[in-house]
Amino acid sequence: MIEWFAVDLIKQAGELIRREIDQSYEVERKTGKGDLVTEIDRAVEQLIVHRIQEAFPHHQIMGEEGTTDSPDTLTGTVWFVDPIDGTLNFIHQKRMFAISVAIMIDGAVEYGFVYDVMADEMFMARKGFGATLNGRMLTTLHEHQVRDAFLSMNATWVTPNHQIAPEILAPIVRDSIGTRAHGAASLELAWLAAGRVDGYITMRNMPWDYAAGKLLVEEVGGRVVSVYGEPIQYDSKTSVLAGSESFVNDVIKHYVIAKGVTAEAKPDLHIVEQES
Ligand code: IPD
Ligand code: CA
Ligand code: CA
Ligand code: CA
């Protein structure tokens, strides 16, 4: 079965990372000082891509580190692969990063896997069948409002940035019971599914960051949309707002729309110009 193939593959990739993490490896800068890729990211993606291509030559693969072409259309079976989600954590903290893999079949994500390599925690979801953590079923999310939510959000989004005016998200930070910046989108969504945080907000994620985690959250009754409340697509970068139904509604209604910001008005938010 495809899910056990995926689990075996991800665990093998995890062993590779644990073996290499204390060795010296090359680090390259991609677009900016915080956007790095290591030799290990590339090696893990190659391992995963090679095994998928060997077993399923007709499947398409969308991997972060560019060893595959982006599929032209999201038809047939498409694998979304982030070999190390949280590369900065991998380099600096040697923990709190994940391998994120999702399998989309005919336009719908059917399987999602987020593997916390150093904690040896495998989060898995199958569409319509729920989500598990190391084989144990995860339970339905508790409903939260912003005022009683423990949040995961990068501090970048309350500083001047290209994506959103800081005053839109700062009140959410102020009103919540606490905010943490964990630095690995897939893991933050997996922790949300496991009830370890109550909300996750980011203004910039790619499909390989959220495809698996989104299914995990949805399989425990949560909702994942853009911060403007739009459905999330899998073909480009997007903002991500995730949490229980009431948390997501609270954010959109009382913090985003209340400031006069809607999906249609969002281009007006590109008001701050700075190098990232
Ligand atoms: C990044 C992490 C980070 C998120 C970025 C991602 P990477 O992934 O998930 O938490 O804020 O948007 O690009 O580059 O470490 O795989
Ligand atoms: Ca990256
Ligand atoms: Ca990532
Ligand atoms: Ca990555």
Biggest sheet character: 7 strands, mixed
Contiguous runs where pLDDT drops below 50 for at least 5 residues = 270-276
Percent of sequence in beta strands:
25-35%
Number of strands: 14
Question: What's the multimeric state?
Answer: single chain
End-to-end span in angstroms? 43 Å
Enumerate the distinct ligands.
D-MYO-inositol-1-phosphate, calcium ion
Overall mean pLDDT score?
93
What is the overall silhouette? globular
Radius of gyration: 18 Å
Secondary structure: helix percent: 25-40%
Which class do the helix and strand fractions yield?
alpha+beta
How many helical elements? 7
How would you concisely characterize the structure shown here?
One of its GO terms (molecular function) is acyltransferase activity. This is inositol-phosphate phosphatase. With 276 residues, the chain is α+β, with helices and mostly antiparallel strands.
Summary tags:
single chain, 276 residues, alpha+beta, 7-stranded mixed β-sheet, 26% strand, globular, disordered C terminus, binds D-MYO-inositol-1-phosphate, binds calcium ion, transferase, inositol-phosphate phosphatase
Describe the structure.
The protein has 276 residues and is α+β, with helices and mostly antiparallel strands. Helices cover 31% and strands 26% of the residues. The termini are far apart. A hairpin with a 3-residue loop joins strand 7 and strand 8. The radius of gyration is 18 Å and the shape is globular. The chain contains seven helices and 14 strands. The protein has a seven-stranded mixed sheet with strand order 3-4-5-6-7-8-9, with helices on both faces. The chain has a five-stranded mixed sheet with strand order 11-10-12-14-13, sandwiched between helices. Helix 1 runs antiparallel to helix 2 and helix 5 runs parallel beside helix 6. The structure holds D-MYO-inositol-1-phosphate (IPD) and calcium ion (3 copies). Its EC number is 3.1.3.25. GO terms for molecular function: acyltransferase activity. Keywords: Acyltransferase, Hydrolase, Magnesium, Metal-binding, Transferase. It catalyses: a myo-inositol phosphate + H2O = myo-inositol + phosphate. It comes from Exiguobacterium marinum.
